[in-house]
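Saturday, quiet lab. Running sequence design on the structure tokens for the scaffold JK sent over.
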């Protein structure tokens, strides 16, 4: 009998030693959080792409919208994120404006993942990064639809409408930023790209559409965005900042962090918390971070 116990013990030890190891949490620093039981919910993934912007939105009906794709060297990372999240096609891509840290990775994404439509403001740029983006769109047989205030996106189960650019801004690329508002049930999000005070002032001409629960903070938390007047109109419960760790610009600026905290908004940051996931059931919003 004693020999039998020893043999069983050895077998169990070997089984444990040879068993594959599984992560104890879905919030590992290298992976976005995936809410397994979030069917019928709106899921927003603020991807950690360093000093840049990239946000994936999954609608309650399973459609996918990507806003920006990070810098040139982050394109593969964005594709990896999308594949981890089970994204096989994109219903729409929004290139908020031609700055490299927003559109640099989009050519890689467009080349890798079938895309149905592309939106961008009606402003051009002469950089190779912008040309690569245009070439990727052309090679997919797509045409860029002009992003401007009042244009609605054909997404199921949510209301998605551009609230900027409101006007034309010559060569001021940040002011041209496409700003999207999404409403799901009683919850709402505002994605502002690099829109600065000039664009914010134009958006404030229609303040009734600006109030939301979640504000994607403009220009990585630069003090040229998120004016007090704009923040007073938005009145966010949550604020998300996409920025790179120890970036040379000093983003997010302490003044903006203080301004957000004084407004009683809960602040999330990709530079300190990694990819941030917001899940809305139409009534409440929950957040998860990867670190």
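Result came back. Writing it out in full:
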């Amino acid at each position: 009998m004693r020999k039998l116990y020893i043999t069983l013990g050895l077998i169990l030890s070997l089984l444990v030693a040879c068993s594959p190891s599984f992560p104890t949490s879905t919030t590992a620093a290298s992976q976005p959080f995936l809410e397994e039981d979030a069917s019928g919910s709106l899921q927003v993934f603020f991807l950690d792409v360093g000093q840049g912007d990239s946000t994936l939105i999954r609608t309650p009906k399973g459609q996918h919208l990507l806003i920006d794709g990070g810098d040139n060297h982050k394109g593969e990372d964005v594709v990896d994120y999308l594949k981890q999240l089970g994204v096989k096609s994109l219903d729409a891509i929004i290139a908020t404006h031609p700055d490299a840290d927003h559109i640099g990775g989009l050519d890689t994404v467009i080349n890798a993942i079938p895309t149905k439509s592309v939106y961008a403001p009606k402003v051009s740029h002469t950089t190779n990064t912008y040309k690569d983006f245009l070439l990727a769109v052309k090679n997919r047989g797509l045409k860029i639809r002009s992003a401007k205030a009042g244009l609605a996106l054909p997404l199921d189960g949510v209301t998605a409408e551009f609230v900027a650019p409101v006007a034309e801004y010559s060569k001021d690329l940040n002011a041209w930023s496409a700003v999207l508002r999404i409403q799901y049930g009683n919850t709402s999000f505002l994605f502002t790209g690099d829109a600065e005070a000039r664009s914010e002032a134009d958006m404030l001409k229609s303040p009734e559409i600006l109030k939301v629960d979640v504000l994607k903070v403009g220009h990585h938390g630069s003090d040229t965005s998120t004016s007090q007047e704009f923040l007073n109109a938005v009145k966010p419960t949550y604020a998300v900042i996409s920025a790179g760790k120890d970036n040379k610009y000093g983003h997010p600026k302490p003044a903006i962090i203080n301004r957000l905290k004084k407004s009683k908004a809960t602040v999330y940051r990709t530079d300190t918390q990694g990819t941030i996931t917001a899940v809305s059931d139409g009534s409440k919003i929950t957040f998860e971070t990867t670190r």
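Notes for JK: The first helix runs from residue 2 to 18. The first strand starts at residue 42 and ends at 46. Ask whether to fix the surface positions before the next round.
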